[in-house]
Amino acid sequence: MANSHPLLSILFWWLAVEMLGLIALPLTLLVFHHLADGGYILSKTLGLLVVGYLVWLAASLRLFTNSLPTILGAGLLLGLVSLCLRGRQEIIALLSSRKRTIFISEAIFSCAFLLFVGIRLLNPDLWQPWNGGEKSMEFAYLNAIVKSPYFPPYDPYFAGGHINYYYYGLHLVSILIKLTGIVPQVAFNLAIPTLFALTVSNAFSLGYNLTRKYLWGVVAAIFLALLGNLDGLRQIVERLGELGGLGFRSPIPGVEGLVRAIPGLLQLLLGRRALPPFDYWRSTRVIPFTINEFPFFSFLFADLHPHMIGIPFTIFLLALVFALRKRSPQDSLFSLDSLVFVLLLGLSLGGVAVINTWDLPTYFLIILGAFLLRAWAQGGAWARAKALSASLGIVVLGLLLYLPFFTYYQPLHLGLGLVRRRTEIEPFLTIWGFFVFLIGSYLLLSLQRRLGRRGALLAFGSVLLAALVFLLLKGWVLALLFPLLILAGILILRDDSQPERGFVHLLGFLGLGILLGCEVVYLRDFLQGGDYRRMNTIFKFYIQAWVLLSLAGAAALPQLWRYLTGLRWRRLWQGAFLALFLASSIYTVLGTQARVRDRFPGARPPLGTLDGLAFMTVGRYTWPDESNPIELRYDYEAIQWFLANVEGTPVVAEAALPYYREGGLRVASYTGLPTLVGAHQNEQRYGWMVAQREAEARSLYESTDLQETKALIEELDIRYIYVGQLERTVYPAQSLAKFDALLEEGYLELAYDNPKVRVYKVRG
Description:
The protein is mainly α. It is 64% helix and 4% strand.
């Protein structure tokens, strides 16, 4: 029923998220009762996290299957435990006292959800030939997780293997798929809006609890989830310069671009010229040889990638840590709510780690910092020792709770490398200019207020001296960040035990620390040794820094506004802030327009569908050159046959081609059925294993020896062989003819046939 119309799919999906929130609400109110909003809107994230964990644990231990009855049982168990922890009368009283907050929170969640549903309706395609991203791989894994009865799930891109590190966040999405019965190609386009809405509402909740003002909660959500970087402004200035054609040159940064833009702006205003198209992609490739995504781009581009899935869960963990700061040092460690609190901290930290492993060190440091701040307020070495022990205990607890995951997980690349080619100041400020301005202003004015004129001058003089050292070494970014980090550290040490302010200082300190750390070391991975060695370090840690600095900046802004009152240059600062904010908003407007237009070329299905595969019904592209058109409807019809007629998870052989430009692996991707070898396997398993399988996959299609082909089919347990347009493009006709010979021999049978696709089935 939910699949019969997009509106029904949207409604059923939204109701499923709401239901998870309701069953987790009593537990949420128990854990977050110190917060102004009681953590109400956080219950949706908590419900998904706990139900997902219970199902995953049961399927990992093979106690129950990964199925709808198990999900319903987990939901029932969570609901009963929640009700036991909080009585009905207590819940009603707590909710009655927060009616306005509940209404605003639900409105923000639903509006954010519908906003991105609208964006997905404008561009639901799960692939296109130049900016297809990694949706094919993520969709393959999502399909495999839905089909897997136990965990770890089988790997659709490596028949006989299991998914190594990538699957837990997609498992959480699959919970909603099984609850609603919505097909994965539609669910994919509902998962993105859900994660965006959880991110927005969680950021709103944390911002509101840090400031006690709805406005600043909204600002926190905007800073974190909606703003872009300053490359939008740079693009407009560059394009105006191209329109004007002025050959002005200047060595002063920024002057040349602004002067050249003036005649172009006149041409634009007079209607003589139009701006070239906005490049939404380039704003995430500002630093050469790296990826510098920010949350809005991640949701807009809509790859269901771990770094994006993890964002709402990291904010939820931050809310838990803030609730820890709000707890009284005298609270009993052995009370019911304390034990539940510790368990949820471990569950959340472990969940963050298995969704996106790169998040583990950062969020461990946040937990450690929160415990140490509590210990600092109490004073004494014993308090600090207990804080360190408690932090380590929570990490151990988190790892133990997810032990079945780590039992199978194989990290292939470990170690640190020293950065040799650091980030230039211009691209750095293009990405971080707004937040550096905001956080830097807050730190300077806060220290002036807290330390007095003399103390502030001493502190500023010391850090400027340190900055001078970095400048002499031409470390411009280090010279900017190091003083700010020291100032944030001073504020933390001089914290007056006000939890809100201390937590903001902690977020700012760690956010700046991440940016500085990325200029000193990088994590070695499969890209080690090339120009892109630092790509994933910047990619993963910049997202974390964006979350921390956006929340810190939004929570610091009201205090900063008060500090500015009466200062002569207040208007100048406010003008600069507004200019930077508007410049950061350019991407939100123009980037969204460019992204929704970036659809599959040529004919498109009518607007109004959330089916991510609908583009295949009319889509046509050329590969490897213009002389070879590929009509996707034939593959679409074959894929629908697989979905309707093939039970279980038999191995389907298809051409082992990448998906970025070629559009390969479409059977494995769009059905979840395992194929011989697919993309990114060198990140999943050892190179020799991948090379051997790739050679076997090539031999299956290239060999003309019938006996060798039979041996490979039996060795690899192949059940179906797919010969479509890509296979005919890549492999010689005389090699593919062997499958018809085996058909005549009776070894194979023809399972499916259309003008462009043949599917052979191995008999027996």
